[in-house]
Give the backbone structure.
Amino acid sequence: MSDYTPKAEHKFTFGLWTVGNIGRDPFGAPVRKQLTPAEIVYLLGEVGAYGVNFHDNDLIPIDATSAEKDKILREFRTALEKTGLKVPMATTNLFGDPAFKDGAFTANDPKVRAYALQKVMQGIDLGVSLGAEVYVFWGGREGTETDASKNPLDSGKYFRDALNFLCEYVKDQGYNLRFALEAKPNEPRGDIYLSTTGAMLGFISTLDYPEMVGVNPEVAHEHMAGLNFLHHVAQAWDMGKLFHIDLNDQLFGRYDQDFRFGAVMLKQAFFLVKFLEDVGYTGSRHFDAHAFRSEDYEGVKDFARGCMRTYLILKEKAARFNADKEIQDLLKAAKADDGAHHYLAGGYTREKAQRLKAESFDREAMGTRGLAYERLDQLTVELLLGVR
């Protein structure tokens, strides 16, 4: 059996809000005591994580005094130094405070929009000071419950203006920082703007500095909408926009469950890990998930270790898939190429078009050919079940 111990090279990260989750939900009070940010760093160091990420107010409470802020930062920096943990990503909480009940960048009230920009600039300064090179935007309140309340064209303009302003701020400060937009279809709003990764990718092309902005797709958020997460990740990668990724697990069509990675949809998790490893993704593998409410902090450690261990097990399974002769032969057969259409390589020419129009194709033979995908899928299942 392989060694599934996490190493720095794996770049496994957790947010302060993940392992620090105290188990409160809409139907029940907290079940775990609140840890300080420094205590969370020590916990993550104990389980072998590479890094820790945070919202601005995960680290510094929104109403903290200057003295309280200094004390928290001093203890947090000490914990980072002692554990060796990095801070690859940071973000701003633009959804928790009542001021953002109608959104932040897309709020109707211009004062709220201005306050959101101020809060993000301060959060960027804080994140960069701790080493962050990616800044994530999840628009948890950027949406509506009734479309009578907002004009979506106005909202899109407000959001675009905010990101353009913040890109300029980063450039003006000389920061080495990229933005990553995170989509979600709903919750806590009835409908959230730019609700899928594909929508975010389309929106990025309308910005003044699209090269500075990518995406942070999350497993649970695409699964909430019943979508294939792998396909969205592949699109982002193909466009050079996969700046960060949030790993967790989620059943289709449910509320945002944020289960331990690989906990409920193992085949989907396998193909995701295989893709990330096959293409050579080098960014953080961030676990945006939460332990069951049934757990104490020993259980939280089990949860964190489980996220990383499952990823490494699936990474090993992906290598076996790639080395399995029968599986690879089936894939090769499905792509069988007699070279007859190599002339189409390199794009369009008038001569290629004329030659192609003159060809005859055996449509019946193409339609009746079996592709052995049932066998291929069964072999994948057997590999995952450990009998192959």
